[in-house]
Amino acid sequence: MATAPLLPVGPTLAWLAPIETLASFNRPTGAWSESDAAWVYRYLCNGCGSPATRKAVQGELLRLAYYMRKHNIPALAELNSDDAAGYRDWLAATKEPIEVSVRPVRRLVNGEFNAQWRPFRSTAPLAGNAIKTALRLISGCLAFLQDDPHCPVQGNPFRRVAKGVEQAKRKITDVDDDLHLYTKALSAQALDALFAYLASDQFRGSEQSRTAKQWLLMLFSQTAVRVETLVTLTTDNLFPDEAQPGKLRLRFRAKHNSRVDQPWSAELNQAFEAYCMAYGFDAKAQALLLWAGIKSLPQPAPVSASSVWAMLRTLGRQTEQWVAEGIGVPGTILNQWTPHDSRQLLALHPHTLRHTWCTHAVNIQQMDLLLAKQHMGHSSVTVTERYVWPVRSGAS
Domain Tyr recombinase spans what residues (predicted)? Predict the structure, then answer.
């Protein structure tokens, strides 16, 4: 099999320079000052709101440059809607071995393009959400470039592809909703099964681990907090409830800097104190992490979001196996259990519990949608509506 063309090295792809050099970048001069690369570099300097976004855009543009070189597309200005659709299909197709890195390889080494770099890490098709992100980043980049009247790039073939990405994603991958269960809410019996498993004699783990996982599950299911926020919350986020003396409220800043203010129930407080007691933490200490993992430490240390995700995934699989074996499972759970519930637990994700809280609060507890929006920390009620799923009953 012929080796796929790789990107060239040199000043013609100035936007391959390390992210940390962007802050001191000035408009390029010389033979390449009006090139696509120069304008893309300018976008990376001025058009992205954060270093993380700049890095993400840089990575996706590098992948697009690889695709353009592979298909003999000379410049961004030469891209058309067919090229955009072809790029989308390429992201969603099974990858050739020559495009896959056996292990993660840095794109840049000392500011130079790494010839060992490949655009993918697996031969499997790129996930639908990853495709959506890639197309939107590229579309945003081209939209910014067009704002300058001197830029040679005209038209944005990725705008239409990115705008209809949900429909395009379904056409590409033939999506089955049950394959994307992290976007769905757990049924009442599935949520009950998680707590019942943790309280059962069949739980696999120490008493410390049981207490910690009960606390973690309660945090997610009763506060609907994002996992990225959860690992940063401390006791300093708990404030006295002015309307109800003796009670507390949980307050923090969510995405888009929206303010979240939630009641902190006696049940949550009791579970937190049990968690602290199990690991020797002082529950009344200042700036004590609300979640410090399951390892006993002299001083609780921050944990990663990925470790929380892995713990929930393991808990979901163990609970599903417990229900399948039927040993000590309450009849109220078994009598209403469906194959869909099993699939949900096998793919349990922190965001599943966010959807679960919102769905149950609005559909079952009849919470006002505006109050649910404030609780979730959303910027719009329209976003909150996407988290409210029909309550499944008797589905297979």
Answer: 181-396
The 8-class DSSP code of residue 236 comes to G
Report the C-alpha gap between 205 and 322 in whole angstroms: 14
| Cα(296)–Cα(162) distance, integer angstroms | 46
Domains of the chain: 11-175 (no CATH), 181-385 (1.10.443.10)
Q: What are phi and psi of 160, to 5 degrees?
A: -65, -40
Q: What is the per-residue pLDDT for 115?
A: 72
Q: Coil, strand or helix: which one is 291? A: coil
Beta partners for residue 264, in sequence order: 248
8 Å CB contact between 139 and 159: yes
DSSP label at residue 50: S
Predicted confidence (pLDDT) per residue in 311-368, tens digit: 898 999 999 999 999 999 999 999 999 888 898 898 888 888 988 999 888 888 888 8
Extract long-range pairs of 55-62: CB within 8 Å, 24+ residues apart.
Answer: 55/19, 56/133, 56/137, 57/137, 57/138, 57/140, 57/141, 58/15, 58/16, 58/19, 59/107, 60/133, 60/134, 60/137, 60/138, 61/15, 61/137, 61/138, 61/141, 62/7, 62/16, 62/107, 62/119
Give the residue ranges of the chain where pLDDT is below 70: 1-35, 45-47, 49, 108, 110-113, 148-149, 162-183, 296-299, 391-396
pLDDT of residue 81: 82
Q: What's the angle, vertex CA 199, arms to CA 193 and CA 205, rounded to 5?
A: 105
